[in-house]
Design brief:
By secondary structure, the chain is mostly helical. It has one domain. Helices cover about 70% and strands about 0% of the residues. It contains 8 helices and no strands. Helix 4 packs antiparallel against helix 8.
Length: about 280
């Protein structure tokens, strides 16, 4: 942690430091697309590669006989995703079902990084001698709004792609100007505005929902970590504080496993729903 020599951080400094991304430059405005959060990029790509490797291993070791635990778990996951995609998307699912499976596994792995001890990344960075280079580091990509909105924008692009592919350029443009109020020239502008707002609302809500839940979970872990480190902030060492830290941390981690999986499932389902809506004619 980049604090002055001999100065122990107070709780506010501790939390602010852990919520700071390793960015390519200092952000001075609310929106700046020139800035890259390197930690978000690194862990997003790493979890994507890990997810692909896990699924590749499952496919490579698949047998027609009695499956092992790993194969059975992956088969149950694939069957669940296939059933959901079949009930939501009325069309060719050769790409959409694997996409939904990838989204679930990828988001679940990124969310699971929140279960690691909050001070572990900075400790490891210090052990390998990179503390002076990597002064800030956030390990959970989905607790960064840039990461979740990036996924949401990707879903938006797929929604527009399938809208053009299924309905054609003319059909899609006709739908923009005639749904939901009907084909009347006085209603063309309200229809267009409502459809544009709907696309924007879907994208923003998709990214904000995942970000909000994971950011809140990360913040709770930081607050719990303060219970175990109160002696670092000027208070006397307390067995009660340490025990409270362990109990609260364990309880929240167990509960957070549900949040991690639930948010991945919701992201997958909404991806299917939004792409499925692009297949429907209005």
């Amino acid at each position: 942690m980049s604090v002055e020599a001999g100065h122990a951080p107070n709780p506010s400094e501790y939390i602010s430091h852990h919520l700071q991304n390793l960015a390519s430059s200092t952000q001075t405005s609310i929106v700046d697309f020139s800035i890259i959060n390197w930690d978000t990029m690194f862990w997003s790509i790493a979890m994507g590669v890990l997810g692909c490797f896990v699924l590749w291993m499952a496919a490579r070791k698949a047998t027609s006989g009695v499956p092992g635990r790993f194969q059975a778990a992956v088969e149950m996951l694939v069957e669940m995703v296939e059933d959901q995609s079949k009930s939501i998307v009325h069309g060719n699912r050769a790409f959409i079902a694997p996409l939904a499976l990838t989204v679930f596994v990828w988001v679940a792995l990124m969310n699971s990084l929140d279960l690691l001890p909050v001070d572990l990344p900075s400790k490891v960075i210090g052990w390998v001698g990179l503390g002076s280079i990597i002064t800030y580091h956030r390990i959970v990509p989905t607790a960064d709004l840039n990461g979740t909105l990036g996924i949401a924008v990707g879903v938006l692009i797929l929604m527009l792609f399938y809208s053009f592919k299924i309905k054609g350029a003319g059909g899609f443009m006709h739908e923009l100007f005639t749904a939901p109020f009907g084909n009347h020239f006085l209603l063309w502008i309200p229809n267009l505005l409502l459809n544009l707002i709907e696309f924007c609302a879907k994208t923003v809500s998709l990214g904000m929902r995942l970000f909000g839940n994971m950011y809140a979970g990360e913040l709770v872990f930081l607050l719990i970590a303060l219970l175990g480190g109160i002696w670092s902030f000027g208070a006397d060492a307390s067995v009660l504080g340490f025990v409270g830290h362990v109990i609260a941390g364990t309880a929240w981690a167990i509960f957070h496993i549900l949040i991690v999986l639930l948010q991945a499932f919701i992201m997958m389902m909404l991806t299917l729903v939004y792409i499925g809506q692009a297949h429907d004619h209005h």
